[in-house]
Structures
1.
Amino acid sequence: MVNPISWRLATVNGIRDETSSVRSLTLGLPGWPGHRPGQHIDLRLTAEDGYSVERSYSIASEPERDGEIDITVERIPDGEVSPFLDEVVVVGDRLEVRGPIGGYFVWEAALGGPLFLVAGGSGIVPLMAMLRYRGTIPEPPATSSSGPPSATRQVK
Amino acid sequence: MTERFVTRGFVGRRTQEGPGATRDRIPPGQYQTRDFPVLSAGPTPRTPLDRWSFTIEGLVREPVIWTWSELMALPKREWVVDISCVTKWTKLDMRWRGVSLDTLLENVELDQNAAFVIAYSDGGYTTNLPLGDVLNGQAFVAWEYDGKPLAPEHGGPARLVVPGRYFWKSAKWVRGLRIQDQDQSGFWESLGYHNRGDQWLEERYSGD
């Protein structure tokens, strides 16, 4: 049997505004097993009365960082979770997450190149993980990326 | 972690509240959507109907192949079902027209060792299900959604629909079923997703 991907507590170590409606959260996860660029986490929020919701968020950071990941979240005005992450969460808060998850939409150097990455909106987040990872490898393949203005705004 | 951690400041919008009957139809970890999201791992295949066919093969006495018009001539019915995707959306009261897998399987004689179904699709997608998960009205092949021909982006001309499992089991662009005695992981089942995918047990990923 495969071990379940367990829920664990992450600590919000940093918050960075990317645009007026997009922010990145740095989640401290001691013992994080590492991820492949393009993978995601599941996030679970629970209210005091036990009401609970889950969402999936792509990991925005490269795997080389030790014990922490970034997620980049676009605020959906009528959403239930993204406005909470955008407006309520502060550094030091703890959030339940599990991951890394997903084995298809990933890229690693061994898969070769060149790469052509296209995204819309928050779809750029897993591509940013690939680009940031690419920046850490000695002889990266050629890469170009593009997206609509709403997406490219958040590239830093 | 068995106890759920209470998230500071989180109240929730309770979008799945409202009448209890509706709330009780949203599986754990899911939210209700009124859209019909499209998620796909590759290009959308478009097979002309005059070259389209549907096959049941594998552990059957004689394989059977239906053309599109032959499939349309089978006894069809309407289904109104709730659908849950592992990416966390649930859509209630989705109205389909199609043919039950029971009806399709009446046309073959199953080997006594038949135990699993591998659904396969244009583009190479596969997904696996125990026979027991698709019999007795639990699965159908649909070619209409909401009174209109099923759009290619939603799996048209025809897709498998298995409402009791996460939606990746409902293979888009389905072209046939292979009956086997042994289970065999399909596309997502080989990539970290749960082999069975019961949304009420939250069987999202391997090991859940």
2.
Amino acid sequence: MKLNELTISEAQAGLRSKKFTAVELTQACLNRIKERNKELNAFITVCEELALMEAAIADKRLVQGKALPLTGIPFAVKDAICTAGVRSTGAAKILDNYVPPFNATVIEKIRTQGGILLGKNNCDAFGHGASNENSMYGPVKNPRDLKKVAGGSSGGSAAAVADNMCLFAIAEDTGGSIRQPASFCGVVGMRPSYGRNSRFGIMPMASSFDTVGPITKTVADMAIVMQVIAGKDSLDATTVSEVVPDYNVEIKKDLEGLRVGVPKEYFEVDGMDKEVRKIIENQIKNLEKQGAEIINVSLPLTKYAIAVYYVLVPSEVSSNLGRLDGVRYGVRAEGKDLLDLYSNSRAQGFPEEVKRRILIGTYALSAGYYDAYYKKAQQVRTLIRLDFDRVFSDVDVLITPTSPFPSFGLGEKSSDPIQLYLADILVSPAASAGIPAISVPAGETKSGLPVGLQIMGSRLNEGLIMRVANYIKR
Amino acid sequence: MSLSIEEVRKIAKLARIKLTPAEEKRHADTISTVLNFVNTLNEVDTQGVEPTAQVTGLEDVTREDVTKICPYKKELLAQMPLISANLLKVPAVFGDSEDVI
């Protein structure tokens, strides 16, 4: 087995027992990136020199027996998350030259614990998309089939982990951006509860939805990374002070007495692929054999979650992206006056979908429309939350497909925004409610495309959903 | 409902994004489709329902209002598109006079 194909736990063991060095492990990942990135386009920036330098420092620590949890483990970061001294574009040309002077808190934590930054992953610009076709640096291809999308918006991160270019990746999930690409590429991806992980230093998309989470090869690896990054941060006032449990212990507990809810609406959405449905139903039967109790439940507002999302998110986007105007940082376009400078910088620096969302948000928040759109959507959001609260009094977790279908063809949905928005129909409700949800590989279609199974839990129950995910066998 | 080209021009101006005539047409079409789609929310009875603005339940999170020294002064200046003697240079805000800093 090649070093870049190892999981985090395997690599930790190998590094500590001196079977290989951090420099060798990092070089194996860099070689894989060199070999495959032209085809997959999973990285926008690769920081080879920095990575090898940090790996050499990690090797010194290992020799001294002072290894930290992630010492010598190479990882990649979505380009919409700030990394000190390493270009962070958000996959939009308006930040083509932006080099953040600081790390996002989660990145700071990982680097402090010894993680080796390999580079920055391609994504839909500022997280706007479900296919990674809205990047101004070109689409990401699915490692399983180069004619198919990697999913989005964190397509580069999911493809990089699936293709063994890194051992894990850090990405961002506003309405499904970690889980959906993880399911399309056959890896594990988790959106934590809103407030569990700090968002300081991520490029904001929709502040009341945005979360940061890992993409890993296994559930055990997910627990390792979450242990490092979870917790309160004085730089993000939305983080909560509840104690972070020992996830490595949590995931090893058994399933006896566990109540698994199966919400029928998630299996009845338009376009539900028969093979996907079958794979998920079989996995649910397997859980029953392992001691879980299966309970059919109903979440009747599921079908409205995407409509809620596409009012509230563009509204928050239109406000959050107001800061990008070519004045203080990023790429400035020429203009005959200040107004012209703003309008030209934004015209040239944003792709079509980002412009569309800013325009929708500007419209929804404008005088006379606020109550009809924004307030109405916020009220339905309340009802979606209450729907989840109600079922979580009867069940411990909910199991659904992550996506109604496996990866689709490049260009297949890109001309119709609604089609692409609906790709997130099963991942968006958890985002509205702020609850944790994980996507774990559950099988493959006959044509060899990965299918992801989603497990949702009540707020701050990351340990529990990871435990259930740990029982899903491919 | 459908959004007219004039309405798209108006919101694009508010949003500070210059659009080409082809973009104006495309956004009028696609945004109209999106608005029709989100109008399905009107099927849901929300009378008396409190709107959700955040999901943590946290209230009044504050910190001390004290100044801190910024350790990144040099790096932040390096990000600026145009500087003059450590100051950001921008076009004049009022009138069409010389660039100001």
3.
Amino acid sequence: MNTREWALIIFTTLAQLAVGMLFVLLIVRSYASRVLGADKAAAWTNTPLYSVPVIMIAALIASLFHLGKVMNVIGAVPNLATSWMSREVVCSVTFTVLTVLFAFFEWRKIGSAALRIGLAWLAVVVGAVLLVSMSATYMLPAQPAWNTPATPINFFVASLLLGILGSAAGLVATAKSQAEEAGVQDALKVVLKSCALAAVLLLGIELLILPMYIAYLSTQGLAAIRSIYLMATEYGALLFLRLLLVFIGAGVLAFYLYQKASVAGGEKSFGTLAYTAFALVFISELLGRVLFYATHYRIGV
Amino acid sequence: MAKQLGFFVDINKCTGCKACQVACKDKNDLPTGIRWRRVFQYEGGQWVNQGSSVIPSDVYAYPVSAACMHCQNAVCTQVCPSGAMYKREDGIVQVDANKCIGCRYCSWACPYGAPQFNESLGVMTKCNMCVDLVDKGQRPACVEACPYRALDFGAVDELQAAHGNFNAPAPLPDPNITNPSVVYNPNKVTKFTGDTSGHIMNLEEL
């Protein structure tokens, strides 16, 4: 694998985390506004929401390290008509600008609450288009290991899984400072139970996609079979570690998180479980992305 | 509109001497590791025991000289985010180094491995059919250097009229992906694209 591709591993993983977190946090914000009121909901969810533009800016900075000539980067958009990478760049920058604007308006209370939330939902829509563009960027006829439906499915599932567990970790952290606020702990339990269930479901999809992906690749010619061979040999240990971490994070720990959120007195374990689950899944998705870039083979010569 | 230019390679005449590859490196002053023209040595077959002898069975070998195919459906120009990769009126595909951001996306998309990243320049580089010579009415360095006159260049439709339209020798990829502007004259052992009976035997040279 080319060392410059580390930049893309970090960019794609962080961008997917940012899009997923914004989506999940806006749903939580909507729920919390109904059960806690708008002010308490904002106080609880704003800090994790503010982290979204920070994560996205970090992703964009990382992506620059992939380029051979950063000074020309401003010219990376004119080929929107045919280049998915151009579209990916435009969507990434638009998503970042929208999330920065949302965070600034929310912080300074500029405009109505509905307008600010509307801006954030617009960013989610752009984020979804970003994930589509990001997937299509890799779906090249010359790259059989990438040119499969598994690419968009994995990118969307990774975004949701990272977003759910990242949001859960952020909400647990901010709920500690809101401990005296009535209802926040109860709302947190409901949110954590939902997050845990969704994480287990997404883990199931990830584990289902892998054998289907390998079976499909085995029918796609020599370059695709070389990719499978690499996954099974040179990168076999990495694949095993990636699956083990996501299983522990999104399976075992999410299950315990659901259990603790269902019983009285389980709050003390929320932090340990939510932070560890997110960390393990984040590392697992990074490893999955390493495999993605390390095991692709171009057809031809 | 100018006619699409392309290369002609006569596999019957080519001996795999790599004079074209060396002439290209020399003329374009290419650094170590970058080869705009490459000569693939494709070989296959086996030796079998027959009594006390070991005899060749279907053993074959042939060279395939290949550079950028200046494809009519040039995927590199389609995927390039900055528009640095572009096609001239005469079909020659070039890189504008002042626009290239060095993302290497074109090298992922091209099944011929034509765009190659120059680390010291930070941009993609590729065969430009010696456009400076072509614009002066001269021939590309690789064509000039071939001692067997196995290489030629010109308008693709004229090359096809003279030599046929075969453009799919193994180990090259399926030409339907990019519609390459190239004509090959196969010899009697040349295999078709997708053949799995042989191997590229000189990978360390490519």
